[in-house]
Fold these 2 entries.
Entry 1:
Amino acid sequence: MNIKDDLILVDLPTFDGLAAAVAARRLRPGALVVVPAELPPMVRAFISLHGDACGLLDTEWPHDRLATKLCPDSGTVLPARMIWGKIESAGEARAVTTRVITVLQQQGIPLSPMEATLLYLGVLDGSKGLPTLLDARALVYLLESGARREVAQKFLRERTAMLLGESAEQVGSVRAAMHAPVQFVAPETTIAEAQALLWRTGHGALPVVQNAKPLGILLRQDLDRAIRHGLRSRPVQEAMCLNPPTVLPDVALSEALKLLVAPGPGRVLVIDENHCLIGIIARSDILSRLYEQAHPVKEVTFGAAELLESCWTADKVALLRRISQVAGKQDLYLVGGAVRDL
């Protein structure tokens, strides 16, 4: 993962603090949300399941990098040494998240159902059951944006077991949720070859398999770290996570969910009775089922050229125009993080 200069620190270890930070990231494209180590169980469970999809980094604050901090009292966004912006709301709000939502609405920034659900949790948490008029309007806006009330209610309850059990009922069985066949590598595959395969396939992890049985699992960030340390030619068995969590295909999905939200690789390997690999489940698979019935995000039309010219530096815009000239009549596409940020 390439860490940007801008970090947003979750100041309040609550759903309100987490939601406000994730919402602030929409106002600061490219910033990274850093989550503190000490969090309540249900907030930790949400991050374990949704972290990758919401762009969360579960780590300690790297003090040597520029950091931005969302202050809960004033709504002021602070970097390490100076104030660079301020989040204000036109009215009284109990939840910090509501203040950020007001700015999102003013700027016409759309939300995915998953983001809307987290922000819905944040407003409910921050308003402590007594929302102001501004908080209530924010809740209505989030429901219109596809927030899943039934998902939010599970995370507002106190027992993680209840969340896991009810989520399992909603998304079905392990066999129904797993991906198969599975892309994997042998233990003697080099780290460089495995990294190239991950980038080519777009996966975030690769099982390491020998004689059809899983030995470990490789995460993209572990491979990137190994490359940075000059280990390109070393075998992947030196970089893999040992003893990856495994389940049988016909067990209740709640068993896989318990492993997914626990510390670990964020994937569960599915094996048959002979311990041979037959499938894989990632947190994203569970999320897609939890949110598949959500209302679609409203389509937003925008002028890409105008946005590029306003957001990019002049030299980058000039380079893009030059590439377009070279392409001529051939189709040319801008993909990846640049499009997401726009």
Entry 2:
Amino acid sequence: MGYGIRYVINRISLDTALYPILVICMALSGFAITNMLFGSGFLALYVAGFLLGNSKIQGHHQILRFQNTLSWLAQIIMFLTLGFFANIENFPELIVPSLALGFFLMLVARPVAVFLCLIPFKYTMMEKVFISFVGLRGATSILLALAPLVFRVSDADKIFSVTFLMVMASMGTQGFLIVPFAKWCKLALPLTEKPPLKTELDLPGLTDSFLVTYKLSHDTPAVLGEKIPGWARPIAVHRGDMSYNGANIKKFNSGDQVYLFASSEARMPALDKLYGCGSIAETEPFLGDFVIHATATMNDLKNLYGIKISDGKGKETLQEVMAENLSDMEIGDRFSLGSVDLVVCKVENGKATEIGIALDPVRKSGKKLFWGKKKKT
């Protein structure tokens, strides 16, 4: 089905707005044919969608936007429809047991299940706590609760109402508290830069291209006089109330809004280095008191802070130490080393290139902080 849809779309010329309709018609036909052959139509659609989503097809961005809108509309309609099955008259007598079950599920049952399932994996304690907290119960739970209604089980309407109230309690508490809880668990990474705005271009031969918009700040390399290569010159610059041809701009100012053409996603990191905006001042407490280059050695830290190190480890660089003790490094991961913490501030090609030094890495409770995934020793 997936190969067939891709073949047809790439060999038929239609108005762009018709491609999403063609995809839906062919997908429904494939779903019906699969069911007639005693297969799983849902599984067939999933595999076909996975194939199409990773293929170059005509009208790709138009199809993607249409499907995204349609999926949100379907979810809204589904929740509204499921809500019609709830019997409000049962709510007063069921509200207390429903909330009791809901909070037992959130605070006891799910955390126990998550901790047991994650035993083989290298997650920290706070990561496990956060994963336990964010398991929202939604449409799937309500759909399963419809089974007693369909089979006319005794008190099926009460079973559905209890499930409905449990879902509402979960969504109302966990849904609104995810961000504060992530901060409490010390797992919320601050943005070091404001991400650029990207607009996908759906033109013949340019299916992987983007129009990228950056708003420059005072510490942007382009504003500080960094040399801009020809391929990275903006096509337009908006300054104040005026717009200029990018080729005519000799010097960039803070506040300029620049528009660039990126021929592929691979060009984005290079453009970010030239035009990336935003200050890291607000992230300094999170990333340590100051930053040093990862080529500094353990002997350097020993001389400065009196840290005890093992024999033969003095010549190791901080980059090597982080690589030995952390896996899947991300910005914000840290490793406790005596009286200080080493914090990953910058990662290139999977290696830490800048390390933050946290001089007082102790919580109010007196416990040391450790974020990131430890390697086995």
